[in-house]
Amino acid sequence: MTTGATGRPGRRPGPTETREKILACARRLFAEKGYDGASLRGIAREAGVDPALVHHFFGGKQGVFVAAMQFPLDPGVLLERIAQAPRDRLGETLATVFLDVWSDPARRAPLLAVLRSAMTNEQAATMMRQFVSATLLRPATELYGIPPIRIQAAVGQMIGVAMLRYVLEVEPIASAAPQELVAMLAPVLQHHLEHG
Amino acid sequence: MTTGATGRPGRRPGPTETREKILACARRLFAEKGYDGASLRGIAREAGVDPALVHHFFGGKQGVFVAAMQFPLDPGVLLERIAQAPRDRLGETLATVFLDVWSDPARRAPLLAVLRSAMTNEQAATMMRQFVSATLLRPATELYGIPPIRIQAAVGQMIGVAMLRYVLEVEPIASAAPQELVAMLAPVLQHHLEHG
Question: HTH tetR-type domain spans which residues (chains A, B) (predicted)?
């Protein structure tokens, strides 16, 4: 029996219920197998649905992860903003995107939660490492031919500034204006990305 | 009754016991009042000893903190190594000292513990912020006249690389040779410290 014409729920789960079930299975599989080890097909099998439905809801494994982990960034959106920048303004664009994301309190709290759990939990660190590699580091390397270690040096600069500014709240970097930080970080990020 | 000529312990506590008592009181006071708010005199009062004895054991408040928190770095030793570098090799010296410290597993574990607790505990973050400001950032500013935000940008670069290399263990930065990292980081650190 499916949902009747009256709109009353029947025994078949509605789309919201199915979506939640997929996300719960995804969380379990990502935690068990890491980002690389879990597949869209495996998540669908666990949830007892067709892989096409998972694809329809979330667009792909990356989208399932972002939704399941309530990950505060969509790497696809980030990459698109960065890909539009001219090569000689990559550093400035990265610094600007980075500060935009962190300046928004609604995204900062979950970002901090992600950083904290990766710092204190091996399983979370593995998931995060694989997810960031697959969705940001590898595509950026392919897009610009920049060696991964150079991208990591730039990411390290930004993560460290975020820790001092938003976690340890060290002054004066905690209260500095975003444009002051962009001016300070842009040349360094550009250097990292240019000297591969 | 004090320790007799035979060396048997009397009722007065021996030096080890007194030292431990001072450290226990210091841990409580640093946690309660932060690094800035706790004084050597206050720690001595809590422990029921003369401030001169605390000074004799630990050299000063900084030494009490390093001992009480089992802090894996002595900022005085670090500053001395950095102060000996010519100004135009500050970046290289900082990168080298930084990798020396982190490459030593005996110091890495407690450093990670410090970073983790500062990431997850507000009280630990306050203590750490005040301690690092008083013992590293302010002296470095006075020594070289470098604006604190510039020193913080350099420290941010190093903390971020440490997180990627030692906590998240992202490849290839996790397995890179120290000299490759020094070559990569030195010019960036030098830039931060020169362009105040």
Answer: 16-76
